[in-house]
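Rotation project, supervised by the postdoc (A.L.). Task for the rotation student: set up a whole-complex structure prediction and record inputs and outputs verbatim in this book. Inputs entered:
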Amino acid sequence: MSAITAPTGRRARRWRVPIIWWLLLATFLIAWLLVSLYGRGNFVATSTLLNIVERATALGIVAVGQTFAILVGSLDLSVAYLISVTAVMASFIMQGDPSRVPLALAVVTAIGLTVGLLNGLLVTKARINPLIATLGMGLILRGLLNASFQNFAGSVPESFQVLAYGSVGPVPVPLLLFAAVVAAGALVLARTRFGAHIYAVGGDRATARLSGIRSDRIVIGAHMVASFAAVITGLYLASRLRSGAPWIGPDGVYDLESIAAVVVGGTVLAGGRGGVLGTIAGVLIFAILDVMFNQLGIGSYTKQVLRGLIIIAAVAIYAYRSREVVG
Amino acid sequence: MSDTRTATQVPAWRVALAAVGKSAPVFLVLLILIAWITYLNPRFIEPSFFLNFLRRSAPLMILAAGQLFVVVSGGFDLSQGSLVTLTVLAGALLAFGDPANTWWVILVLYGIGLLVGVFNGAVTSYLRVPSFITTLGMLLTLKGLALLITGGAPRGALPPNFRAFGRAFIEDVPLLGRLPWAVIVLFVLSALFVYLFHYTVLGKQALAIGDNQRAAALAGIHVPRVRITAFVMSSLSAVTAGIMLGGFSGVSINVGDGLELEAISAVVLGGAALLGGRGNMPAALAGALTLQALFTLLNFLGLPSPIRVTVQGAIIIGAVGYAAWRAVRAGQERGA
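Outputs recorded:
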């Protein structure tokens, strides 16, 4: 496993395809088969495939950020409310006026990076368990947000809706956005010093520190990446809904689902092993299942039951292969 | 852990007392909160009001007690809240308002709880899925199941004798006035939980696994069995809390939402270390009571309810940060 996923293993990846991609392929083929036999619509139509990608975009972007947090051995439960805060603040500041877009972007980016910085400081300097620190941060954001906004606030201008509805030639902008975030995430992890340090700190924090890595800074940096990804998701959702509402983050269960996608994608919850590409495979699996359930006419409650069991089963396949003791 | 080391020489009750002393902050905070609430509303410590406060705290305290077994053994149980929801919705659907159904329905509900606990524990132990993911999957599954069987809206009703556990009183008790059933149940279960955690081998084995799983296994502890038992304790406590909540807040589809995180917060306020190895039952129960007292206080202060959520977040961070700071100062490596 480590040969595939460690940052130095780029060469090895050519020889062995990570199991998650087999899972993704199997999911796709099974979905194709089931929909062809029992469903309505054509599963391999361009519209269906775009539908899959569209569903994957919001979760995918936040999950790329979550991958960074989990790789350093932390996690971020505050992303759902940060998504809400971003969407609401962005559309509230824009008020449908294109000239106010840069200001809105600056403000939500500043909020996001501040939240990430605080999360990182709480986890490293105050030594608070990341589950509690980011849960508490999420509660703080939720309270502040709900105290100020009860409903859709403001609106985003037409020009900003390009983010969700525009297309460059035949390619929709969300797909480009998604691809750009994934590429950036993968590049940072594979090619930069920061990326290498993330694997080192996540693998063994004490050893990393003794090797001269300022591990606290790496953890804080990873939390800021996670928050920044949540900001991008928030902006995308605001653009798609044409306005921001306080419930869009928690309603999407982006906190727990992004963690599930990361872990299904083969990143170890304890940190140090995994990567963005696995996460994307995990997100795509969720999206394919979503679309498949829709085309098979399966109700949303049954969908939720199956999704829970699928998360457990997918992680079980991994955990069983890696033969490691987990908590 | 010093309290397990000295267990052979010192009587168990003194060990329990010492453990309480070590995590004194939560009791101090609880006293301060109760004093503050009393200052704002002197009637709060009148028996009937205080018993009512205990009644409202009972479900969270029971959830926290169950959660503690899982947390000290190094895991999480995120499925508690969904199991509470399933208990209430399935209970209403099965009993359909007929008091004659109550007893077998309760049996069925505990049966479901047992299955959920065994599943959580077995998947975590044998398939080596992190408990965070196992119970997160279970959270989604149980909530989906609850919505699926009811079609998304509460159906049926809980019969009066089912609801009695949450809302009935024994009238005219000397000194106390109206004594809620829930408080009696709470005291009996608290005693049982303290006994199981501090006076039987189960609690010590759970602590040992959370501290060092490999060492525990080498010392002859059957790790999967203890872990499964811990998850079963957690699930059964969730069913109990569900029965109580169904009693006093009635049937709704989001009755259990977020309770698992409140229970984990309560346990951590009570000084338990996440990722295992430290924790004690009286402090965890006090942690839940503290959280409930905090909600009550914020209510009395007249803060708008969203701000209460913010304060709750800040206080959880603060409490755990304080515990971590104390641990560092005491020269221990393990943060809370």
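Student's summary: Chain A touches chain B through 48 residues (CB under 8 Å).
Supervisor addendum: The two ends of chain A are 19 Å apart (CA to CA).
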